[in-house]
């Protein structure tokens, strides 16, 4: 039974990577076709970029860093449930989001004068970077890079980085929700992207639950909070985008894909 669940988990893991991973492509293709990024909030792009830098760091450390993995095991009694597919998801979305920033600033795509990164976004991102740097300095000053339990250590810092990614996701979605509200439209914000996003988050959550069942401890999902909260947050945010697109600002002319 455990082997079967492990196989199912692996399959679902790659399904979520593909489903969630292609979520950015409808927006990229729409921007390319229209030579415009007018449907996207710049705060969304930069919060998303920062978020995936954090998430990629979190997943890579939980998979490959022996010190962080040992600290996690000693504190939780289980190894991290983070898988290689989680890392690939983070790296892929980091690259695709980076390309959308290139579309906005380097390829000459049109955008409104009001489409700028807000001061608030700059301050928040600056504070996050400062927190990480200060955290690393404190850890090195107190105990170096060795395995430490019961104190603020590398494992906790990396976990906090993963949780901050959730905050970045909230921060990125709020400006986009407000931007849609101000325009009373979701035009330029492909709903197909939201469907892929919703599907990927749902599959990620299911994989986490299955992995917890494999180790016979359903509460283990709460030891991997960044992956859990990211999936839940995305499902909630996408539900709001569905409400905006299909009910509040519905336009038959935009169609299902909104790619024209």
TrEMBL record:
InterPro entries, sorted: LC_transporter, PQ-loop_rpt
Keywords associated with the record: Membrane, Repeat, Transmembrane, Transmembrane helix, Transport
Provenance organism: Pichia kluyveri (Yeast)
Molecular-function GO term, any one: L-cystine transmembrane transporter activity
SMART domains listed in its UniProt record: CTNS (SM00679)
Residues spanning the membrane: 6-23, 44-67, 87-107, 119-140, 192-216, 228-247
Superkingdom, natural source: Eukaryota
PANTHER family: CYSTINOSIN (PTHR13131)
Protein location: Endomembrane system
Protein name per its UniProtKB record: Cystinosin
GO terms for cellular component: endomembrane system; fungal-type vacuole; vacuolar membrane
Membrane topology: Multi-pass membrane protein
């Amino acid at each position: 039974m455990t082997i079967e669940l492990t196989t199912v988990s692996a399959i679902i893991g790659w399904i979520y990577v593909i489903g969630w991973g292609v979520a950015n492509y409808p927006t990229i293709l729409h921007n390319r076709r229209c030579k415009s990024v007018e449907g996207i909030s710049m705060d969304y792009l930069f919060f998303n970029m920062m978020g995936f830098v954090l998430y990629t760091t979190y997943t890579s450390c939980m998979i490959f860093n022996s010190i962080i993995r040992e600290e996690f095991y000693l504190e939780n009694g289980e190894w991290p449930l983070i898988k290689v597919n989680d890392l690939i998801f983070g790296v892929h979305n980091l690259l695709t989001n980076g390309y959308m920033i290139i579309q906005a600033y380097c390829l000459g795509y049109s955008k409104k004068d009001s489409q700028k990164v807000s001061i608030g976004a700059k301050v928040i991102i600056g504070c996050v970077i400062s927190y990480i740097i200060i955290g690393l300095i404190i850890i090195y000053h107190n105990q170096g890079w060795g395995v430490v339990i019961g104190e603020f250590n590398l494992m906790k810092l990396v976990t906090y980085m993963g949780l901050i990614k959730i905050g970045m996701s909230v921060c990125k979605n709020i400006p986009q929700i407000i931007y849609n509200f101000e325009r009373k439209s979701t035009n330029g914000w492909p709903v197909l992207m939201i469907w892929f996003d919703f599907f990927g988050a749902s599959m990620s959550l299911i994989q986490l639950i299955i992995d917890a069942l494999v180790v016979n401890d359903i509460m283990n999902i709460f030891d991997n909070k960044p992956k859990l909260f990211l999936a839940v947050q995305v499902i909630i945010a996408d539900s709001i985008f569905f409400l905006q697109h299909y009910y509040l600002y519905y336009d038959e002319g935009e169609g299902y894909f909104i790619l024209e």
